[in-house]
Specification:
The chain is α+β, with helices and mostly antiparallel strands. It is built from 21 helices and 15 strands. It has a 6-stranded antiparallel β-sheet. Helix 6 (158-180) runs antiparallel to helix 7. It is elongated and about 170 Å long. The protein starts with a helix and ends with a helix. Bound molecules: adenosine-5'-diphosphate. The site of adenosine-5'-diphosphate has 21 residues, from helix 19 and helix 20.
Length: 759
């Protein structure tokens, strides 16, 4: 064949080929994405290059033009690759290439003389520009091949890897084809054109369709086929050689030779079939993975999952069974439940997939929609590259990619999606074969009942837990009710005791007064003493009645307060004042910290005095002689976004309070211990009171928008763990509006008006 002549026209033929490809791509893709656009640019450069090869044969001016066109096409291919593979900043490739080509062409005009003498028949001239042009072509192509190969090696998901492998193979064919065109041998140049064209076609396919044929699987199939053919041919050739050799050696008559050949050939035929089957089985097993006995697999799978009721165990079994069967790296069972605003998908951890993560897919999510309508396994690769999933919600896409799965197999329960079996890539790194996909779908269908049972079982467990919780809550409420009931009956005892004691005293002393008066034995001193007893008893009665009235007011209408600027230091001083004789008498120590540093607050002065009087009074009452009562006050909190408040802690070294009573002591008429005991004094150690002090204190603090609580390890008269009553009061109570103070401008104006002389 006259390659010289053919080579002359070949570039034109391939230019036509590239043009047809370009036009068909333009016609097919009206909406072009970025990678298609760059690829079309590459095709255009290829056309110009081919036409230039035809129109400007070797050595003609302008020098090395075809080489620079090749450099430009390499630049565009590099940019396409950058977009296709997803490298950062594809423009970098473009700018670098453009600069290199422009500089090379510039050098070609500035320094057209050769700096390098190249051999005879070499297509290009060894100018500076030519060298730079070649370097551009070489670097771009090796860069794109190396990086694509590196990404292929690093990608774990087989279909993603296949996509890169496909690109790498055809980019290599393109580049290798270009390399061959540098040759001086005509048929090698022709082969180069052809190889490049095949490469470009393969790249076009990669650009335009998301699902590419499985390169590795095809390769394996070709190798397997070749192996089977070769291995099957071996015995036939042995038989043939043996027959020929035998006839040659034994020098038998022709009839016997025929007979012997017949016997040997028939024997060969008999043995051939089983041998071929054996070879096939071995090759398939080691090259293409084993074949399944579907019914057997399904039976053992169903048996395994029917034994499990717990959802997490079920997940283990499902993923374990399928993982063993298909040799997967990991997997997860995902539960799908319809919720108000979509579908909640929850990955159940199993084996080496630990993430117990969940997400709500939108009601119209493309992912769920596809699984629901197609009822076929869905590849993560499709989610990433199929244009159908282009508009998938970003958060959903991210969640799916975090799961690191290769495959999602839907489990349908009648009409709705109940779950997913998600599988990671296979250990071999190969993609799932169609028969494997079919098998997992069959297994997923077998899972429906087991999954339903497991869900019912877990719901039942949840209900049980809830009932158990409710029961314990009921028990707690019951105990509280019992105590409250006891408080009620205690109230009668306490109230009658508390009221009767001073009343009896008043009555008794009044009787004595009357009797002594009648007997005329009443001296002035006696009268004074008896009257003072009566006064003390009646003021106790009065105090008690006031406390009871306060308590009942709290119940009916809450506490009514009158706010004014109040200094807490003064409040505490006034609360302590009536208690000072008792403190002195019982040898108690009283310490105060931080009260002087506090700014004034808006509060009901009288009520606060009452509350702190009750609290400090209790601290005195429940601390043995010579104990310590401390009052700490500070401004809190330091956090900027919270409202300012004051915290006061009244701590004692007394008998402490059992934690079970920490809330109850603030109830009306509640007091720890025997209700039969009546008041033994307001300040005596453990002197019982009517059980109203803390209740009123709590009412006052809460009416200020504050809080009160107690901390104590427990009650112990030996160890004396003590109690700490915490009080928190805000600077200004909620809802409080400041009225004009005497310093305000309005008040001053009013004052001036009033003091003006009316005349
Ligand atoms: P009372 O009038 O009986 O003191 P309170 O309402 O003031 O009633 O207190 C209720 C109960 O809380 C008291 O009976 C007492 O048992 C317990 N209590 C109050 N303060 C203290 C304290 N500082 N230390 C130990 N127990 C206390």
């Amino acid at each position: 064949m006259n390659f010289q002549l053919l080579n002359w026209y070949l570039p034109l033929i391939f230019a036509a080929g590239y043009t047809i490809l370009l036009l068909s791509l333009l016609a097919r893709f009206s909406q072009r994405n970025q990678q298609t656009r760059w690829y079309l640019g590459f095709l255009a450069a290829s056309i110009v290059w081919s036409v230039a090869l035809f129109a400007l044969p070797q050595g003609q001016s302008p020098p090395n033009l075809t080489l620079h066109l090749l450099g430009a096409s390499a630049t565009l291919l590099g940019t396409t690759t950058a977009v296709y593979v997803g490298w950062l900043n594809e423009r970098r490739w473009l700018y670098l290439g453009v600069v290199a080509v422009v500089v090379a062409v510039g050098l070609e005009t500035v320094a057209p003389n050769s700096v390098l003498v190249l051999g005879d028949g070499v297509r290009y001239r060894g100018t500076l520009g030519g060298l730079l042009g070649f370097a551009t072509w070489f670097c771009f192509n090796s860069g794109l091949l190396l990086w694509t190969w590196r990404d292929y090696q690093e990608t774990r998901l087989p279909w993603h890897a296949n996509r890169l492998l496909h690109w790498a193979v055809f980019a290599f064919a393109t580049v290798a084809g270009e390399l061959l065109t540098f040759s001086t041998v005509s048929w090698i140049v022709a082969a180069g054109y052809l190889l490049r064209f095949v490469g470009v076609l393969g790249l076009a396919r990669a650009i335009t369709s998301h699902r590419l044929f499985d390169v590795r699987a095809h390769l394996r199939k070709i190798v397997a086929f070749t192996l089977i053919v070769v291995a099957s041919a071996v015995p036939a050739s042995i038989v043939l050689t043996l027959t020929l050799w035998l006839t040659d050696q034994l020098d038998l008559p022709l009839s016997q030779v025929y007979l012997a050949s017949l016997v040997v050939i028939s024997g060969g035929f008999l043995l051939y079939q089983p041998f071929r089957r054996f070879v096939e089985r071995v090759v398939y097993r080691y090259l293409l993975g084993q074949e399944f006995q579907t019914s057997q697999v399904v039976r053992s799978y169903s048996q395994a999952i029917s034994r499990t009721l717990e959802i997490e165990q079920l997940a283990q079994v499902i993923i374990g069974e399928i993982g063993d069967l298909l040799q997967t790296t990991h997997g997860a069972l995902m539960l799908v439940s319809e919720v108000r605003d979509g579908y909640q998908v929850e990955a159940i951890p199993s084996g080496n997939h630990h993430g117990h993560s969940q997400i709500v897919f939108a009601g119209d999510s493309l992912f769920i929609e596809a699984l629901n309508s197609e009822r076929r396994p869905l590849l993560q690769y499709d989610v990433d590259f199929n244009p159908f999933y282009q508009d998938l919600d970003e958060s959903e896409r991210e969640w799916l990619s975090i799961q690191n799965m290769e495959l999602f197999v839907p489990i349908h329960n009648g009409s709705e999606l109940a779950g997913l079996i998600a599988l990671g890539p296979k250990l071999s790194g190969l993609a799932y074969r169609p028969n494997e996909l079919e098998l997992v779908q069959v297994l997923a269908e077998q899972t429906v009942i087991a999954l339903q049972n497991a869900r019912l079982y877990s719901e039942l467990n949840e209900q049980n837990d809830r009932i158990r919780f409710l029961n314990s809550d009921l028990r707690r409420q019951n105990e509280r009710l019992e105590i409250l009931d006891r408080i009620k009956s205690d109230f009668i005892t306490i109230a009658s005791h508390e009221l009767r004691t001073p009343l009896t005293q008043v009555k008794g002393y009044a009787d004595i007064l009357t009797a002594m008066n009648e007997e005329a034995t009443l001296s002035q001193k006696d009268t004074r003493e008896i009257v003072s007893h009566i006064t003390r008893a009646s003021s106790r009665l009065e105090g008690l009645l006031t406390a009871m009235l306060d308590a009942s007011q709290l119940e009916v209408s809450g506490m009514e307060l009158t706010f004014m600027r109040t200094r807490l230091e003064v409040v505490i001083q006034l609360a302590i004042e009536p208690l000072s004789p008792a403190i002195r008498q019982r040898g108690l120590n009283l310490e105060m910290h931080g009260l002087g540093d506090l700014p004034p607050i808006q509060a009901d002065f009288k009520r606060l005095v009452q509350a702190f009087h009750n609290l400090i009074g209790n601290a005195i009452k429940y601390t043995p002689d010579y104990g310590l009562v401390s009052i700490f006050a500070n401004r809190a909190p330091s956090a900027e976004d919270e409202e300012d408040y004051i915290e006061v802690v009244i701590a004692d070294t007394g008998i402490g309070i059992d934690p079970q009573y920490h809330e109850l002591i603030f109830e009306k008429f509640f007091r720890i211990g025997n209700p039969e005991l009546h008041s033994t004094g307001a300040t005596k150690f453990k002197g019982a009171g009517p059980g109203l002090g803390l209740h009123i204190a709590k009412g006052v603090i809460e009416a200020h928008g504050g809080r009160i609580w107690v901390e104590s390890e427990g009650e112990d008269e030996e160890r004396l763990p003590g109690s700490r009553f915490h009080v928190i009061v805000p600077f200004t109570p909620p809802g409080y509006e400041e009225g004009p103070s005497l310093d305000s401008p309005q008040a001053k104006r009013l004052f001036n008006l009033l003091s003006e002389d009316p005349a």
